[in-house]
Amino acid sequence: MTTATAQTSETPAPARDVYDVLQERGLVYQCSDEAGLRQALAAGRVTFYCGFDPTGDSLHIGHLVGIMAMAHLQRAGHEPVALVGGGTTMIGDPTDKTAARRIMPREEIDANARQFKRQLSRFLEVSEGHGFMVDNADWLLELNYISFLRDYGRYFSVNEMLRLETYRTRLETGLTFLEFNYVLLQAYDFLELYRRYGCILQIGGSDQWSNVLAGAHLIERATGARAFALTFPLLMDSSGTKMGKTQVGGQVWLDAQKTSPYEFYQHWINVDDATVARDLAIFTFLPMAEIEALTRAGGAALRDAKHRLAVEVTSLVHGVEAAAAADRAARALFGGPGAGGEAEGLPTATLDRARLEAGIPAADLLVEVGLAESKKRARQLIEGGGAYLNDERLEARTVGVADLRDGALLLRQGKKRYLRVLPG
Question: What is the pTM of this model?
Fold first, then answer.
């Protein structure tokens, strides 16, 4: 697919109002030196970075906030460094955690890091002359501990570190010395990127403020150079839950194998009315005037705005064709213009045809295709009227080939979660 920041061979001159663009779109929460950063961005090409620790095997929509901020900066002519934290993941960021992360094996971290790099390359141009993709394992795993403490530990005050909200909160439940080192390592990342690429700006989520600021201070103390910290807000839904959680209790992943394009599309169609304008500003490149026009009326008119949001973000993440297929499938299921049997865009599972020919209990079917995590949960769905087969409430019965419609079973959990089951 075309990347979100497709560049010509000739790098455009940096835009002088990119800070205003970020601010207008709700992508600025805190800045260590707004006047200084504005001046630097206006004066020439700035190299900046954002880090992503590969604690899972896919990015999710919470990460997409930072990716969009990076994309706006790159579109304005500045140079991104997308950092995958293969090294820092071995420590574990204690920020916003009530307990230590599990210790992940190196092989799992490396596999996750490779996946992150593939996903990030869809949104950012990281070819020569346009940006960089790096893994902090390349330098962190080679550090000599004694030399590191001697050279950089003197720039950090334990008293100051203990006052950081990241550590202060965890002191009540237990903070390991392993995690206590995290802020030093992230700060060192910024210093290393400054030395390698001239990077003078780090961006991150608002919960990372202490870590980001520590890096800027380390550069200033160790080299005398000027560096900047900028954070974007952590987005919450109307219930106060951190953005990225689905209505069925999991992340909204950017990997199509974990969250299908149809499910991804449905997430955006079903966002709260109060967040539509915000989400259009942050997760699309639509002009702000167009966003204001789409969301001005409110009420029922927001359906069109949500549809535009779903199409735009799904196109950005999964491509135009996948977004169109998801849109057709949604119209087919929920009516409206274009309705009429376009089910190809739905999430699909395969079931052994012999199982259908023999007959499969409804609860077993829900478990085998992934609509229920256990037979107990499947029975609860069926008994509570939350499971449907071919748009009819599914009873506790045997499902067989006679239930196929147009060669497939159409299952539904609740109001919105559909699955097309094909015999294989």
Answer: 0.81
